[in-house]
Automatic annotation (TrEMBL):
<comment type="function">
    <text>Involved in the cell surface expression of neuronal nicotinic receptors. Binds RNA.</text>
</comment>
<feature type="transmembrane region" description="Helical">
    <location>
        <begin position="185"/>
        <end position="206"/>
    </location>
</feature>
<dbReference type="Pfam" id="PF05216">
    <property type="entry name" value="UNC-50"/>
</dbReference>
<dbReference type="GO" id="GO:0000139">
    <property type="term" value="C:Golgi membrane"/>
</dbReference>
<comment type="similarity">
    <text>Belongs to the unc-50 family.</text>
</comment>
<dbReference type="GO" id="GO:0005637">
    <property type="term" value="C:nuclear inner membrane"/>
</dbReference>
<feature type="transmembrane region" description="Helical">
    <location>
        <begin position="247"/>
        <end position="269"/>
    </location>
</feature>
<keyword id="KW-0812">Transmembrane</keyword>
<keyword id="KW-1133">Transmembrane helix</keyword>
<feature type="transmembrane region" description="Helical">
    <location>
        <begin position="218"/>
        <end position="241"/>
    </location>
</feature>
<keyword id="KW-0472">Membrane</keyword>
<feature type="transmembrane region" description="Helical">
    <location>
        <begin position="136"/>
        <end position="158"/>
    </location>
</feature>
<dbReference type="InterPro" id="IPR007881">
    <property type="entry name" value="UNC-50"/>
</dbReference>
<feature type="transmembrane region" description="Helical">
    <location>
        <begin position="105"/>
        <end position="124"/>
    </location>
</feature>
<protein>
    <submittedName>
        <fullName>Unc-50 inner nuclear membrane RNA binding protein</fullName>
    </submittedName>
</protein>
Length: 281
């Protein structure tokens, strides 16, 4: 009986552990999936960036296929425990061989938040109907999408060019993941500046007093600080990147600018409101 034990162990390894490597393709460079999405010739076509993008855009108008409950869960935890959100990105990499979201539900909910909060912003600033529509288009197309595309592309280039570990050159940061990181970081900023701040604008922040720009600028400090921190978590979650702590360095000039604004009486929210009113004229 003991002589048959090695044979049984080898049989188990062939029959059990080999399929498990196929289930977790990103665990080995020499397995079915090599590096970050480099597949064999049979599966390569359906795992290219173009194929993933087409699949994502195709689902954008199929609301029944979207998991809005899970997207809402992510939005909640982006405030309370953003590390848990990025832990889910690890699971997606293991099961679907991509870091970026394949479900546009988060983007749809974020768009709804943008519309509702911007309409509220227009109401608080006493804008007319057409002015509010112009403001909505500006916030969605420029502040969120336009700036997001720029930041995501810049971070995608910098991370792949300078942050990938030397021994992990077969890996790369997906552009879609860089855009997801921006959306994750943008959501808390949006809620703080376009929702929470609305309750203080007319009666506190825009009163041209020290308390006014103290409250307003503090909200800006928290919102931008959230953006920096969630962005840092997004890239530090990738195991093949190094020196991601440099993404926290913008905290230093941010705090310096905050102190300088209080000393000079510079009200960030007043500047933003004046800019919005100028853009919608």
């Amino acid at each position: 009986m003991e002589s048959d034990l090695p044979f049984l162990q080898n049989t188990c390894k062939r029959n059990v552990f080999l399929p498990s490597r196929k289930m977790l393709p990103s665990t080995s460079v020499n397995s079915l999936v090599q590096g970050n999405g480099v597949l064999n010739s049979r599966d390569a076509a359906r795992h290219t960036a173009g194929a993933k993008r087409y699949k994502y855009l195709r689902r954008l108008f199929r609301f029944r296929q979207m998991d809005f409950e899970f997207a809402a869960w992510q939005m909640l935890y982006l405030f309370t425990s953003p590390q848990r959100v990025y832990r889910n990105f690890h699971y997606r990499k293991q099961t679907k061989d991509q870091w970026a979201r394949d479900d546009p539900a988060f983007l749809v909910l974020l768009s709804i938040w943008l519309c509702v909060s911007t309409i509220g912003f227009g109401f608080v600033l006493d804008m007319g109907f057409f002015e509010t529509i112009k403001l909505l288009l500006w916030v969605v197309l420029i502040d969120c999408v336009g700036v997001g595309l720029l930041i995501a592309t810049l971070m995608w280039f910098i991370s792949n060019k300078y942050l990938v570990k030397r021994q992990s050159r077969d890996y790369d940061v997906e552009w879609g993941y860089a855009f997801d990181v921006h959306l994750n970081a943008f959501y808390p900023l949006l809620v703080i500046l376009h929702f929470i701040q609305l309750f203080f604008i007319n009666h506190v922040i825009l009163t041209d007093t020290f308390i006014g720009y103290l409250v307003g600028n503090t909200l800006w400090l928290v919102a931008v600080g959230y953006y920096i921190y969630v962005t840092f978590l997004g890239y530090s979650a990738l195991p093949f990147l190094k020196n991601t702590v440099i993404l926290l360095y913008p905290f230093a000039p941010l705090i310096l600018l905050y102190g300088l604004s209080l000393a000079l009486g510079w009200n960030f929210t007043h500047t933003l409101c004046s800019f919005y009113k100028y853009r919608v004229k």
